[in-house]
Sequence to fold (495 residues):
Amino acid sequence: MQNMKNDIPADIIELEQLLEEALNGNPNLIAKYVVLGQQTAAIYYIETLVDQDLLQRDIIQPLLTFVDVPSINETERFPVAGIVEVKVIQSVAEMLLLGWVYLHSDDSRFNFLLNVYRPPNCSFSKAEIESQVFGPQIAFNEILRSNIALLQMYLPSPNLCQENLEVGVEIKTQVAMFYIKNLTDNELVKRVRDRINSLEIDGVVSSAQLVQLIEDNKFTIFPQFVMTERIDRTSYSLSEGKIVLFVSGSPFAIVCPSTMMDFFSSAEDHQVRWNMATFFRLLRVGAMVLSLLFTPIYVAALTFHYEIIPSAMVVPLAESRTRVPFPPLMEALFLEITIELLREAGARLPTKIGQTIGIVGGIVIGQAAVQAGFTSNILIIIVALGTLASFITPIYLMGITIRIIRYPIIILAGFYGGIGIMIGICFLVIHLLRLTSLGQPYLYPLYPFRKGDLKDSILRLPFSFLRERSMFTHGDDTFRFVEQETVSSHGDIDE
Fold:
């Protein structure tokens, strides 16, 4: 991090320039001036973090009662929670990001920070879509100002840069772009800025619409940017050198660029032990493979490859299919579409009714379908496991993608058997190899292969192994922390 411990200058104009430089041009930095006798007092604060009522009542109004610039002995006339004298610009910048107000006089007799911090006062709800046990439970909401304040509260860093952009000709939609200086590649920042500024559209009303307008590939079914409602995932992504976008009126932050493994990583993975997190990540990847291939293998085995069925399962399979008049392909498609209808109906109905429809409907329709001879009971188990596996992915859009990709692979398995499955997998892998996110490879670090970056992608090694940052975003600062010698844990008890 750049060391900016400059002494505070007396000149107000020079001071303001240094503050803007220290805060990397934060657009929420506000400056107000009050003339007291022959001197001018300047008031600096971050608009989104300060209670405006307290600022007016406890700082500006008492300040107007002074005939001259107040001294250190007169600060008790400001009824605030805390008053601190400062000497360097860096301290001022850091405290401004914590919700303090800085008072300065042009003769440098008055250099004080006063605490009028206001936590975000809108009603933040618990994260519903990306729920987890450990970590922050708060989620973003539809108010852009509140989301910005929440992010600044979790990341009080002067290097957190914010750029305010505008999208839309008829409907002016505000977009806030965040990144951390020295951690994010300037070329990526420029690419996102140019793509947003080049949009000529009536208006954008959600983060999902903006994603579809600025992504690399408009025709792929795979999501190329992570959309999250969680503050911890957003903060960690910024610390990894990624860019975060907030759209006014949308409760989801856009994280870009993203790799495919980002969609199988949960924010909770950094809250639990490394071996637990590694197990969960491997479980999610295995669940994706299971969801994609379980039903196609069933269709291919019963249509072309009876020899791969274990001998102990031949009789149960034959008995379960004795009353089914359809070929395995039609049987599988019927049951897969039925499951999707139940899922979609449960999602669109009110919460309590939707849960009832999903549970009761699945049991009743499944049992009735077996008794009526539309499907076999073994296929019901297979389809249910495949559907359940698709819900393990932490990002909802990737789960939908997996379920949709399953259909062409099932059809290929029904027409060409195992060869059809391999054709589908080969097309899928080729497509993923060609896919990019903001010009970055989608399958990173598997392609191009980066052994060092596997430690926090498919795996999650201990934090002591994560000293070097991922090269995915090509930031200038390549180290998370500096290694230090630790005290040996094998000393004598008496030491």
Residues 274-303 form the longest helix (30 residues). Residues 300 and 418 are 6 Å apart (CA to CA). Confidence is low (pLDDT under 50) at residues 486-495. The chain is about 40% helix and 15% strand.
